[in-house]
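Tokens for chain A. Residues wanted.
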């Protein structure tokens, strides 16, 4: 048996930074710098029907979604699937994806990028954007740094907007 190369990574509930609004909150759990770049994790809490992430893809990591409460819709490539509490989905790198709470449900989920990418700065940038302290140009300029590359997905927006009319 070989010895571990790093200590266990731990964040206690009261240590997790929470950002966002009543519609969409993100709890920053463990970033890649705390896990030897093996994984980065957040918890997302969404109000009924709230959008979680716009369509995008990653070039370095697969993304795991574990739904702990409620139900989400996920764009996975060309398919839109529903995942309920207790379910999980892995989206491979390079696959366009997006997610949001279903129109009739709130949602709580844990998201993990594997291998990890330092992403807490990305979520803080999104928070500043929502508060008017950053611009969409800032977000576009960060795509390579945070391995978050936005894509056009008309079918996703058509599905999401169909329930808002």
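Reply:
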């Amino acid at each position: 048996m070989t010895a571990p190369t790093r200590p266990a990574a731990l964040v206690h509930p009261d240590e997790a930074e929470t950002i966002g609004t009543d519609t969409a909150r993100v709890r920053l759990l463990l970033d890649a710098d705390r896990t030897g770049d093996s994984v980065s994790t957040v918890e997302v809490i969404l109000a009924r029907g709230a959008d979680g992430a716009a369509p995008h893809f990653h070039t370095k990591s697969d993304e795991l979604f574990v739904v702990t409460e409620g139900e989400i819709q996920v764009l996975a490539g060309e398919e839109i699937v529903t995942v309920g509490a207790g379910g999980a989905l892995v989206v491979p790198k390079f696959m366009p994806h997006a997610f949001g709470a279903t129109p009739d449900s709130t949602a709580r989920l844990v998201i993990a990028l594997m291998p990890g990418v330092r992403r807490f700065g990305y979520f803080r940038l999104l928070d500043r954007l929502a508060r008017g302290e950053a611009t969409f140009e800032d977000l576009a300029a960060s795509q390579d740094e945070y391995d978050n590359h936005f894509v056009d997905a008309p079918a996703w927006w058509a599905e999401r907007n169909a329930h808002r009319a």
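The chain has a mean pLDDT of 96. The domain at 18-152 is CATH 2.60.120.10 (Jelly Rolls).
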